[in-house]
Amino acid sequence: MPELSLRHYKAIVAVAELRSFTLAAHRLCVSVPALSKTVREAEELVGFALFDRSPKSVAPTAQGEIFGRCARDVVLAHQRSTDSAGAIRDNRLGALRIGGTQLANASFLLPAVRACMQRRPGVQISLVDNDAETLQDALLRGAFDLAVGPRRAAGAGIETIDICDVPLYFVAPQAEFAERTCIPWAEVIGKPLIFMDSRAVLHVMHYLDRRFVLDDWRVIGSATTALSVVENQGGYMVSAGYARKIARSYDVRCLKLVEPEVRMTLSLYFARSLPAQEMVRAVAQELAGCIAELLHD
C-alpha cells in the first residue's frame, strides 16, 4: 500500500498553518495545482478529508486537525535529523569519554571539559579515572576515547597532542618550611618522597642528570591518599603544579621545586583508528586549548 512521503506531510503542514493554498504553494516553491494534487493524494492515502475548501477559505476538518499535529511532528523530526546530520558532519554532535588520572580530573579536567562543552554544546563528555601508568593501554582497549596525562612515548596507533609544560612542586606538612614558596632539590634529596607513578621518578632523574640521586621514594597512585600521608607526616609528595588545587583541602604546603626547575609536559592522546576520528581530533584540539588556558602559569 502506498505511504505518505515527506512531500505530503510538508504540504499538509503548510496549508494547515497558512490556511491558503496560494500562500502554502509559495512557501514550498511549487505551483498551486501541484500542491492541490499533493494534498488530494494525501487524503486518498489516509482515507478521509483533511481540509474543508471553499472559494474564499480553506480550513482543516476535525480529522485533519488531529492528523495535522502528526504531520507537524514528522516535519519537525525530519528537520531535527537534518540538523543533526550537519552537526555530526561538522564535528558538533556526539559523545566522548575522557580518561585522566584522579589528580588531573579533580584539578583541571572537570572545568576544562565544562568550558569545552560550552563551546561545543552538542558534544557530551564524561570523565573516567585511570592511573597514569596504564592510560595508553586503557585507551587502546576502548575504555575511553581521549586520554590526558604526562607525556609518554606514544605506542603504535596513538596520536599525541602536547598541551603545555607544568612545573613540579614539593608538598610538605603545613608546619614545615613556613613562609617559603620555593625549595631547591638539594633540600629535598634524602627525604622520603612520594610520586604518583614510577615513570615520573625516571623523568625527574633525567632532569637532575646525576647531580642528585633519588634513593628514598615510593609510588602512591591515589592523589588523595598521597596528600593524606603527607598531612600526617608520613612523607613528602612530588607532583605537578596543578596538585595545588586539591591540596588546599589538606593541611599541607606546596613549594615550587627549583635548582633546577623540573617541568612535566602534559599531553593528550587518542587512537588513530577511532570510527569518529575527525570529531575526536576536533574536540581534542579544543580541549587542549581549554586546559592550556586553565594551567597558564
Describe the structure.
45% of the residues lie in helices and 24% in strands. The protein has 3 domains: 84 residues, Arc Repressor Mutant, subunit A (Orthogonal Bundle), CATH 1.10.10; 101 residues, 3-Layer(aba) Sandwich (D-Maltodextrin-Binding Protein, domain 2), CATH 3.40.190.10; 99 residues, Periplasmic binding protein-like II (D-Maltodextrin-Binding Protein, domain 2), CATH 3.40.190. It has 11 helices and 12 strands. The strands form 2 sheets. Strands 3, 4, 5, 6, 7, 8, 9, 10, 11 and 12 form a 10-stranded mixed beta sheet that branches. Strands 1-2 form a two-stranded antiparallel ribbon.
CATH architecture of the largest domain: 3-Layer(aba) Sandwich
Overall pLDDT level: 90
What is the H/E order? HHHEEHEHEHEEEHEHEHEHEEH
Which ranges are low-confidence, i.e. pLDDT below 50, for 5 or more consecutive residues? none
Number of strands: 12
Let me know the CATH homologous superfamily of the largest domain.
Periplasmic binding protein-like II
Shape: rod-shaped
Provide a brief overview of the structure.
The protein has 297 residues and is α/β, with parallel strands linked by helices. 45% of the residues lie in helices and 24% in strands.
Provide the descriptors you would attach to this structure in a database record.
24% strand; 10-stranded mixed beta sheet; D-Maltodextrin-Binding Protein, domain 2; 11 helices; Arc Repressor Mutant, subunit A; 45% helix; single chain; 297 residues
Topology of this protein?
Blueprint: H1 6-18, H2 21-28, H3 32-46, E1 51-53, E2 58-60, H4 62-89, E3 94-100, H5 102-119, E4 123-129, H6 135-141, E5 146-150, E6 158-173, E7 182-184, H7 185-188, E8 193-195, H8 198-208, E9 217-219, H9 223-231, E10 236-240, H10 244-247, E11 252-258, E12 263-271, H11 277-294
Parallel strand pairs: 3-4, 3-5, 7-11, 8-9, 8-10
Antiparallel strand pairs: 1-2, 5-12, 6-10, 6-11, 6-12
Helix pairs in contact: 1-2, 1-3, 1-4, 2-3, 5-11
